[in-house]
Write a structure and sequence with these properties.
Length: about 375
């Protein structure tokens, strides 16, 4: 009951299989993950297909388009528009005899399209790094199974939230000795892209970007969006009603921007969604004023990265209190988010990437030292 409400895994259906579920987005300056890498590069990582069981081969959907959407931002304090200036779109072919899939990545920006073709990495195979050139810049891509790097006591979070909302017994998080990392031992299908910052700039001088992920499927007349995700534990943490989550999955962040700006018809359609998010914030112990400020800081749901400073989810915030330095693979985004959303009342879910000595329900494998950085699949 608790897990199906999470966008890290919001459930399977005949319409939306697990390989259409987005799990996590990571955006960071590569030199902040790897000091030997170029400080001019960004790395974008999209994880999909949660709860992929160890030792089993999983595939990307052959019907879907997986997209990184990127918006150029005038300054770190600017309100997100939710409109993309650059799109990295992935399409995958059918599985082959060696368990790999051919794919193409189409980069659309400033009226032009460039394509890089590649091949996914099958389970337990050496990573295949596909390269291409766009506007004279080298781009490197990985796609395939990796260990899920996310760490979170998901089930306990939903128990805590239910208690705060009066829908269950009041409980707290477990201590590190007993906390359970929901993703331990599982894999994900990951897409990682290494590209120069100036490729995203185009003719602009932008140094700050908003990033979000989407998945679209073919409909009767066009591709329809079925998934969207950026920052962790925001939409899925604040929104309780599944229909509201489905609505947010089907629209771009521009919808949320229009709600907050009071623009019709988005304002009317989105009013109940924002009201529910606010009710969750109030139930977590926030004042009316602070709840409104948090809504302004975390909606629209985009991952902002100011490339002029070190990457890290807690490295810096803007004037609205919104994180602006992307997300590194080992950032404890859940602890950071819980502390902010509860005004310091809750500081940890008791889970870490490395895990706690003696607790077999936690702990992930070490990251790789070079691109694509994610640990090999279990």
């Amino acid at each position: 009951m608790f897990v199906n409400a999470s966008d890290h895994d919001d459930g399977e259906s005949e319409i939306k299989g697990r390989n259409l579920n987005l799990t996590d987005l990571y955006v960071f300056r590569e030199s902040d993950q790897n000091p030997a890498a170029s400080p001019e590069n960004l790395v974008l990582i999209m994880d999909t297909n949660p709860r992929s069981v160890a030792g089993q081969q999983y595939y990307f959907s052959t019907r879907a388009k997986y997209k990184f959407n990127i918006s150029r931002v005038s300054n770190k304090d600017a309100t997100p528009t939710g409109l993309s200036d650059v799109v990295l779109e992935f399409e995958f072919g059918p599985p082959k005899g060696n368990n790999s899939q051919d794919y193409k990545m189409t980069i659309t920006k400033d009226g032009s399209k460039d394509v890089i073709e590649g091949q996914t990495t099958a389970l337990q195979e050496t990573p295949i790094l596909n390269t291409g050139t766009v506007d004279g810049s080298n781009v490197q891509v990985f796609a395939g199974l990796r260990e899920d790097p996310f760490f979170f006591d998901v089930e306990q979070f939903f128990r805590v939230r239910a208690g705060a909302l009066g829908k269950g017994p009041a409980v707290g998080f477990r201590d590190p000795a007993t906390a359970v990392d929901f993703t331990k031992g599982y894999n994900v299908n990951a897409i990682a892209v290494q590209l120069p910052i100036d490729l995203l700039q185009g003719s602009s001088s932008a140094t700050t970007f908003d990033v979000w992920m989407t998945v679209t499927l073919p409909g009767s007349k066009k591709f329809n969006q079925v998934e969207r995700l950026a920052r962790p534990a925001i939409n899925e943490g604040l929104i309780v009603t599944n229909d509201f989550l489905n609505t947010l999955n089907s629209v771009d962040p521009a919808f949320e921007a229009a709600i907050l700006a009071g623009q019709e018809p988005a304002a009317s359609a989105g009013a109940p969604i924002v009201a529910e998010a606010k009710q969750t914030l109030l139930a977590l112990g926030n004042s009316e004023e602070r709840a409104n400020a948090l809504l302004g800081a975390f909606l629209p749901d985009v991952m902002r990265i100011d490339t002029t400073g070190p990457s890290g989810y807690a490295s810096a915030v803007n004037a609205k209190g919104s994180p602006i330095r992307g997300r590194l693979l080992l950032d404890d985004v859940v602890d950071i988010t819980l502390s902010v959303l509860t005004n310091g009342a809750i500081t940890s879910d008791g889970v870490s990437y490395q895990g706690t000595t003696g607790n077999q329900a936690q702990g992930h494998d070490p990251l790789e030292p070079a691109f694509p950085y994610l640990a090999p699949a279990n």
